[in-house]
Design brief:
132 residues, three-stranded mixed β-sheet, 2 helices
């Protein structure tokens, strides 16, 4: 029998693991599955890849948009926005952005496309809320 390797979790270093869990949990509808003082694990209830957040004392948030010589993003998450029944796509995207902002995210400028919005999570990691 061959060894099998399974992609299970994306771990994000951050300034506050619990703030990150509140943000992503609220955005995705997930609950923490394991909590420690400086680390939180969240599993997708549907069984897909989960997220965890590791608080690091010297965390430096990435700069967005990127600037030469400044901390660069190492990863960003793409989160699909699905409109509700009968809901306009742009209204759904606006609702998703409003939810992200209410959970501690920020909306940087510039925003370059109509079908997605870049949002910064509470630790400054960029993520894309997209329609397509």
């Amino acid at each position: 029998m061959a060894t099998k390797v399974i992609f299970r979790t994306v771990n994000l270093d951050c300034s506050d693991a619990h703030a990150m869990a509140r943000f992503y949990g609220g955005l995705l509808g997930w609950e923490p599955t394991d909590v420690e003082p400086d680390w939180v694990l969240m599993r997708d209830p549907g069984g897909a890849t989960g997220l965890s957040f590791q608080q690091t004392p010297d965390f430096v948030p990435p700069v967005w948009p990127e600037e030469l010589g400044r901390q660069q993003k190492m990863i960003h998450l793409d989160l699909k926005v699905e409109p509700g029944e009968g809901q306009d796509e742009q209204a759904a995207l606006a609702d998703a952005v409003a939810l992200a902002l209410s959970l501690g995210g920020t909306l940087p400028e510039p925003q370059g496309r109509d079908d997605l919005r870049v949002v910064l999570d509470p630790s400054g990691h960029p993520l894309c809320l997209f329609l397509v």
